[in-house]
Write a structure and sequence with these properties.
single chain; 8-stranded mixed barrel; 11 helices; globular; binds ligand C2E; binds magnesium ion
Amino acid sequence: RAKANGSDACELYKREMRYQLHEKFHVENDLRRALERGEFSLFFQPQFDLSTNQYCGEEVLVRWDHPVEGLISPSKFLSIAEESGLIVAIGEWVLKESCLQKKRLIEQGFPEVPMSVNLSLKQFLQKNIVETVKNALQESKLPPHLLELEVTESVTIDIDRTKGVLQRLLSLGVHISLDDFGTGYSSLQYVSQLSIQELKIDQTFVRNIGKERQSEGIISMIINLAHYLNITVIAEGVETEEQLLFLKEHRCNKVQGYYYSRPLALKEYKVFLTDTLHL
Ligand code: C2E
Ligand code: MG
Ligand code: MG
Ligand code: MG
């Protein structure tokens, strides 16, 4: 009897596995087609300098504009894109398109402040990543200092290689930001060895401001670390005035979050900037 149950469970498990594989296969195919059909689009979220209260840049966030499902957020498809390797092609498109759109924004008279683009670990580890970034800059004629690349602590998985790649990216003139900082497993020693210009405090800590002393302590430690290392620090996921005041008091340099604006499609983003800047 127990044996029968066991094999039933086993059958069920096998069936589920087949189902999951099937699903994954579909999403993967859909993603590939989405890329060919141009169904990805870019959203922009502004960043603000806390010492001047001025707009000081933006982060580009990808969305999948599905013909039936509508806008799909990256959390729903990036892991499959990552596993299948499609992230490399998607990421390349994001990089090229971001640079083109940013260049156009500047030509239209918007301020010459930097734009951040996320790089996945797999994309970062591509042999030709420096070439890819260089091409995106050349094709768009975007000045390199206006491009900032966001990588996560996972890049320290191969520290020697990463140091080299970051150096080469830096020599193109772009800046590097370490995203989701505090959630990964990189040692402080590694952080001080990487040529980065910015640390980005993860929103899980920001969310707990006023609620949990431990998160507040980590935030203040990250800010001190960044300033000790002479790099800029930005907080993501700022939603409330209380969070904003805490970050200001602790001398965080920049912020980004729903408190100021959700990520917006280009058209809405231009309206937002025009209103904010009183252009
Ligand atoms: P991330 O780079 O840490 O981006 C921040 C995420 O927080 C974004 O989610 C953003 O929409 C969201 N967010 C911003 N402000 C707030 C806020 O005040 N409250 C809350 N609750 N959330 C806020 P999104 O756009 O869904 O992106 C999720 C993640 O997907 C990103 O995390 C990034 O790791 C990845 N991602 C997005 N676009 C790209 C891309 O083009 N390439 C790669 N490789 N990854 C990307
Ligand atoms: Mg990011
Ligand atoms: Mg982040
Ligand atoms: Mg994050």
